[in-house]
Amino acid sequence: MNDELIAQIDVIADRVKAARSVVVLTGAGISAESGIRTFRDTMEGLWKEFDPATLATPEAFARDPVTVTKWYDWRRLGCLAAEPNAGHLALARLEQRVRVRGGEFTLFTQNVDRLHHRAGSKDVVELHGSIVEWRCNDTGKLIEPPPEAFEEYPPKSPFVKGGILRPNVVWFGEALSEAALNRAFGCVPKCDVFFTLGTSSQVHPAAGFVVVAARGGAFTVEINKDATPASGGVDVSIRGSTGEVLPAIVERLS
Ligand code: OAD
Predict the structure, then answer these.
(1) Domains detected in the chain
(2) Is 117 noted as a catalytic residue in this protein?
(3) Residues 6 or more apart from 19 whose CB is under 8 A from it?
(4) pLDDT tens digits for 63-83?
């Protein structure tokens, strides 16, 4: 770590220590070090290999439920096989540290992989749902299928005869859950420190959170391997990996 990065980490740690409320937004980049593919990275991004219009929309599911559910099941099994990395674990510790001092901590994630939960984070708002849960396309009832591939595609719903299951994720063209958005409206505008981590800041509404936080007076921090549309507007923009930088920030808090 160079001197500039160490100085940035010290500034961030001081702001976190003084904060009453910390809000974090994560994207696919935080899970990249767990071996889960991102969406827009030049080489390994899923959307470089697959067309979201044929896989991640309600229309695609209606047209070709076999292909769509097979693809999501392949991703589900990849998520279940992955382990949380140092970045996820550091955020769980950060939550603990902020809470012990009586502060508020909210973690919003665009990821569907459940790795924040498995790392020990207590309060996780899944903006784009979860791939680990599937839901009945007719009744909306949720199920957490066992960690093996489904026997057939689309998988049969156990809730209604002739029904099928879909992953409990938000597809392009679908609305985010009202409860998740209400959480964001409640805490993003009045937080003291806002982190945007491993997200390309291209998908709204999550991409707009950092702007709302900054307008409300928050100290804003980005950690990302690459520059994003958010980089120019944040107080500290660190070009690095979340698995390396987040543990260093948490270490400075003790
Ligand atoms: P993207 O794939 O768009 O962006 C991932 C970001 O993480 C990129 O800016 C990478 O440079 C960065 N990155 C990669 N590895 C990193 C690392 N180790 N440390 C830090 N940064 C790293 O993923 P998201 O921004 O999460 O939505 O994408 C948002 C949404 O678009 C997803 O939730 C998904 C997708 O379409 C739906 O499927 C609804």
Answers:
(1) 3-36+84-128+175-253 (3.40.50.1220), 40-81+134-169 (3.30.1600.10)
(2) no
(3) 98, 103, 191, 192, 193, 219
(4) 999 999 999 999 999 999 999
